[in-house]
Design brief:
Strand content: over 45%
Distance between the termini: 19 Å
CATH topology: Immunoglobulin-like
Bound molecules: copper (II) ion
Number of helices: 0
Number of strands: 6
Strand order of the largest sheet: 3-2-5-6
Helix content: under 10%
Length: 73
């Protein structure tokens, strides 16, 4: 199936928190694991994605959330 969206970028900023849980972000389904600097925006380039949800987790598989990919209107 061909992705319908365009490549995108996600920006994450880790704010003054030195917990190891916020040190890394992992988007396993995209094969992305990125270390996040403190108080500096980190830009993560994403490939073209199909509408749906992309799960992200911390590097230790504890914290999690989703990036929602919405269809183009
Ligand atoms: Cu963690």
């Amino acid at each position: 199936m061909r992705p319908r969206s365009s490549p995108a970028r996600a920006e994450r900023r880790r704010r003054g928190d030195h917990s190891p849980c916020t040190r890394e972000i992992v988007l396993a389904s995209l094969g992305i694991r990125r270390e996040l600097p403190t108080n500096v925006p980190a830009v993560i380039d994403l490939p073209a994605l199909s509408p749906g949800e992309i799960e992200f987790k911390c590097g230790m598989n504890m914290l999690r959330g989703v990036i929602v990919v919405e269809p183009r209107t």
